Amino acid sequence: MLNPPKTRRKAARTRYGVWGGNPVGFAHNAARCAYEVPCGIFSHQCFRMAHFGPANLYCKQHAKMLED
């Protein structure tokens, strides 16, 4: 993810899985990690629970990645 959200407001506006066949994408699920995970040519929201990092938006693994 190039610019991961740092606040709850930015995370709420984030759309996941946006591409030509699905131009609207999927809304942010507040219970899950806010990091966008690449999967082949598509991407999706991380499936882990969010309790770490800025504004408690990320899972433990992605919160560590954002610290660096």
Number of helices: 2
What do the pLDDT scores average to?
92
**What separation lies between the terminal Cα atoms?**
14 Å
Q: If strands are numbered along the chain, what order do they take across the biggest sheet?
A: 1-2
Structural commentary:
The protein is an alpha+beta fold and 68 residues long. The protein has one domain. The strands form 2 sheets. Strands 1-2 form a two-stranded antiparallel ribbon. Strands 3-4 form a two-stranded antiparallel ribbon. A hairpin with a 2-residue loop joins strand 3 and strand 4. The longest helix is centred in the C-terminal third of the chain and has 8 residues. It is globular. The mean pLDDT is 92.
Give a quick summary of the entry.
By secondary structure, the chain is α+β, with helices and mostly antiparallel strands.
